[in-house]
Structures are given as C-alpha cells and as structure tokens.
Amino acid sequence: MQELSRENRRTRTAWxxxxxxxxxxxxxxxxxxxxxxxxxxVLQADQLSRIIAAVxxxxxxxxxxxxxxxxxxLALVLRAVLAFLRDWAGQQASIRVRSGLRAELLAKxxxxxxxxxxxxxxxxxxxxxxEQVEALDGxxxxxxxxxALAVGLPLIIIAFVLPQNWAVALxxxxxxxxxxxxxxxxxxxxxxxxxxxxxxxxxxGAYFLDVVQGLSTLRLFQRSRGxxxxxxxxxxxxxxxxxxVLRLAFLSSAVLEFFASVSIAVTAVYLGFSFLGELDFGxxxxxxxxxxxxxxxxxxxxxxxxxxxxxxxxxxxQEAVGAADRLIDLLNEVxxxxxxxxxxxxxxxxxVALALRQVSLTWPGRHDALLDGLDLSVAxxxxxxxxxxxxxxxxxxxxxxxxxxxxxxGEVTANGVPVAQxxxxxxxxxxxxxxxxxxxxxGTLRDNLMLAAPDASADALWQACRDAHADTFIAALPxxxxxxIEEGGAGLSGGQIQRIALARAFLKDAPVLLLDExxxxxxxxxxxxxxxxxxxxxxGRTVVTLTHRHDTAQGADRxxxxxQGRLVPLEEVQ
Length: 574
What we know:
The protein is of the alpha/beta class. It is built from 19 helices and twelve strands. A six-stranded mixed beta sheet has the order 6-9-10-3-11-12, with helices on both faces. A four-stranded antiparallel beta sheet has the order 2-1-4-5, with helices on one face. The protein has a two-stranded antiparallel sheet with strand order 7-8. A hairpin with a 2-residue loop joins strand 11 and strand 12 (566-569). Helix 3 runs antiparallel to helix 4. The two termini are 58 Å apart. 36% of the residues are buried.
C-alpha cells in the first residue's frame, strides 16, 4: 500500500510538472532573477563588512567610505528590483498555468457533454474548477523557482565563502542536507492531509449548493433548521481538517527554523572562538579578521534562507499534489459524447428524418442494458411520442438524439448521416429542445430569448412570445422584455418559464423538435397553454416527445412505449 501511495505521488508530481511546462519561460525568468539577486547579496555583504571593519578597526569616517556606501545603496536597489522581477515572473507563470488548465478542464467538460455533467454534483465541479485549480498557484509561482534557487543560491554563497574560510564552508555543507531531509519527512504527511482536506471541501461545497437549491422545499417540510445544524457539523469537520493541515505546516516550519538556527549558531561560535584565539584552524593564510568574520556571519543566514523558503513553499507543493487527484481523474474521464465530426446535415430545409439502428447502452457498474438493440425510425415531419415510467431510459434516449451521449453499439442518424460525424454546431443548430427543467440565466428576458436567435428583431421576439402564449404575462412585467430576472427564473412561475422555453423554440425555427416531459410539474391552466403552443410548434417539423402522461402524447402520429430497453407500439402493450 505504501509503494502504491509513493507511485501515486510520483505520478501526480510528474503531471504537475508537465502542466507547469506551459510557463517554462516565466519560471526560468524567476530563477535567473533569484540567482542574480544572490550575486548582489554577496556584494552587499562584502561592502557592509568592509564599511563596519573600516569604521571600527581603522577609525574611518563616513566620507572615507563614501564610495562603499554608494555601492551598498546600489546593491540594495538592485536586490529590490530583482525581487520584484522574480515575484512578477512567478505570478505570470502561475496565471498562465491556471488559466490554461481551466480552459483545458472546460473543454473536457464540453467534450464529456451535458449527459455526463447532469450526473455530477454542481458544487463538486465548481470546487474542482475554482479551489483545486487555484491550489496550483503556490506550486508554480513559488515552489518551482525555489527548487532551483535552493540549489543555486547556496552554491553561489559557498563559492565566495570557501576562499575565505574552509571550516565555515564545511559547516554549511554538512548542515544543509538536514533541512530538506526533515522537510520531506513532514511534507509526506502534509500531502495526505491536503488530499483529504480537498475532498472534504468538495463534499461541503456540493452539499451546501444542494441545500441552497432545495431551500424552499426544506422550509415547506420544516427541515431547514435540521439542515442548518447538519451544515454546521460538516463545516466544523472541515475546519478541523484544515487545522490539521496548518498544524503540519507549522511543524515543518519549526523543524526547518530549528536546524537553520543551530547551524548559524555553530558558525557564530566558531568565529567567536577564532577571534579569542581558542580555535586555530579553518583559515588559509591569515587568521580570521573582523571583516572576514562579519562577511561570513552576514552570509550564514542567507545560505540557509533559500532552503527555509523551500520548506515554506513545500507546503504549497503538497497542497498542489493533494489537488491533482481529482484534476487528473477528470482529464482521464472516458468521453462518451459522440459529437465532434465535420459533416454537414444534407437537405435540412426539406426536413430531417431520424433513425436509431440497433442502439444498445449500459451504464458503468450495471450488468443489465438500459437500451438493448433499440430501433426507431422517425420520418421527416412525423410526430412520435415515447411513453414510459421514470428510469426506463427516456432521458438517455433524448441524450442520444441530441448527440450528448454515444451508444455502446449501433448508431443514431439524421437524414442518413451518423450524428457522430456531424459538425456539433450544424446538428445542434437544426434541433430545438424543450425539457422539463428550463434553464434561464441572470439578465433580461430579451437576452434569454435571443440565445435562440441572436439577430432576431423586436417584432420576431414578440411574435414568438405570442405563439408561445407568453406575451400576456411579459407585457404585464415592469419593463416587458427588458425585465431583469435572476438565475433559474426566480420570481416566475413554472408555467411562465416553460412558455419562455417554447418562445425560444419558436424563435429558433429548427426542423427538429425534441420534447422531454414538456408539461411536467405544471398546473392545469399552464399545461393547457403549453399543449396548445406545442400543437402549433409541431406543425411541419420532425418531433419526438418523451413523456409518461397520455395528455401530452395526444396529437402524435405514433405512440410508442419504452420497455426493457426496446420500443413497442402502445397498442401491443395494452
């Protein structure tokens, strides 16, 4: 199990490095700026030690060391500029990687299709795209450059310390490996804690969004107080997990500070006893002078600083490794959405004929097929209604027709061309889809309607609203079509939202109309208006209606029933 865990960590780390490869130039710029800052640091320590030694030992005045003071000031300014450049380059690298990864994840979600997304918890996916991608910030912006600097900067300092005193150089070299060793030992625990913390955050986000979306139902059944207590309990669990991660981070920092402080103290003790004449080794030609001692003592903290900073940023690495699990899982998800071809739909203006030939589909983890050798032919201009109780596969059949999902075997065709070979924009442009759960976006009613036809005129908008029996209630709104609505159509009734969906379908004027329980959850008056509008909308189009209600199936040319993965005429069932 431990070997498997190590292999998983190596896999995640390798993936993180490959993702960071997109910002290699900015990472290298940050490294170069940090290394140049190391050379300037040595110059700064040299000038400062010379100034102090000249004033203390030789009694020099400020005027005598004026040139050295100007060099020291220049070194300070250069270090500030290089530090800014290093931070800027690291942030640019992080922005590039995070934006690129989010674009890749969104493209993956698009390829997986709405059928896959419907089976996921919205809060979980949102946490993945926001929080877990954001966790890569410290890894790219600070940890990757610091890895190179943790090696380069100490070597630069050793190169200047060794000609001055070999004993101090040996102290540095023997104590330096202790810091990354203990950093790694503590960091392995931090990675596991971060992974559990991200999973807890994803669960909390998904659960909280579910509660918010169902708040009205919870109030109706007087369960809001109980859910509030449960959210408090889950939040408290997440707080405790976060504290565990922080405890490990502070423990790592304490260990690093301890070994760095001990090493600096050993250096200071050696230099002190050398001045007192108690130690007579370590120098090359002459015993340690005040200037040399100050120079070495000023560089001692700076020698360990890159290693300590690496330890601080190592926590960011473990955070990124913990976040990589779900990101890799999503990117490796098997794509079942068939749309992605380049073919155009032939003779679409004359009508579209649909066909499913020996279509079979089995959900992962299930042994029995949801659809088993299903055959269906819908002629151009024909209206076919398919009935069946919930769970028989009606929504899956709709996803197949829309091209949101691919069958395990068989094919779905439009005018004889497999849907999998059609250009997505071409096929979806030929289809109007009205489901039982209409999505309205924050904005005006006009904006929501023009999603179906961005270039539609005001007259066309109102005509579509009249055809959908939506004009009366829209005219009664404060700003009519320019009335702003909230997400999901808050403030509008279910019947009004469904009539807006029908108005969009009228406005699109597509040759294929797919209806998925269009009258579900409507009162009788709203259902009567929707059914009347559907009767007008269906004329001259190829229509497939999925429903479990006989009233909605009225007016269809054929009524079929979906049973045990196959379609049979309703008369045979009766």
